[in-house]
Amino acid sequence: MAKRRRKRASPPRARQVFLNIPYSRSYERLMVALTTAVIVTEAEPMLTFKLVEVGEGRLRRIMQALAASQISIHDLSYGHCRPARFNMPFELGLAYAERYRTGDHEVHVLEARPYRLQRTLSDLNGIDPKIHHRKPARAIHAVLGITRRPDGNPSTAKVLALFERVWRKLVPQLRADFSEDLFERELYEELCVGIRLEAFLAGLI
């Protein structure tokens, strides 16, 4: 009797981390810092613009991104601008719905100031957001406390040095080659490739 060939196991899929953040020029440094930290933890950052639009609209893409991710990080620090922006709190609600639907979706909240969330979103009382003060170092520290790789994460200082190198050298090059908008799918994918390469050369992954 012929022996059955064993099906080769597929390599484990990288953890995906959904970043629910404002797509604003003033947020670009924090976006690059968060992306750098996620990649260094050997996870895959997921943003809605990475999903190809097939005519189903942004809401459908957000739900797909949440369903594909094991962790979501929601920055509510821009909900206090004028006019007020409600996208981030709305997407946070979708993430909690995904958490209760599947039972294994982690939800984390970022804010710029301590205690402000108690006034603006009291339904989350008892959940402590991670405060970044709009500083890349604090944002990186927050991500390193949220997602961990089996052999442990590098220090905040090492990841911050990597971020500064990426921001100073790689980001201007990508703007010149693609566009000024960092929240564009092709440019962002190249940014992630560049961060992985820099992290490898620095011995961080």
User: Could you say which structural class the secondary elements and strand pairing correspond to?
Assistant: alpha/beta
Anisotropy-based shape: globular
Q: At the third CATH level, what is the topology name?
A: Rossmann fold
How many individual domains? 1
In CATH terms, what is the architecture? 3-Layer(aba) Sandwich
Taking the alpha carbons of the first and last residues, their distance comes to 46 Å
In the sheet with the most strands, the strands line up as 2-1-3-4-5
Task: Output the CATH class name.
Answer: Alpha Beta
Sheet with the most strands, sense and barrel status: 5 strands, parallel
Topology pattern, helix = H, strand = E: EHEHEHEHEHHH
**Estimated share of beta-strand residues:** 5-15%
**Low confidence ranges:** 6-12
How many helical elements? 7
Into which percent range does the helicity of residues fall? 40-55%
- How many individual β-strands? 5
Radius of gyration, in angstroms, nearest whole number: 18 Å
User: Whole-number average pLDDT?
Assistant: 84
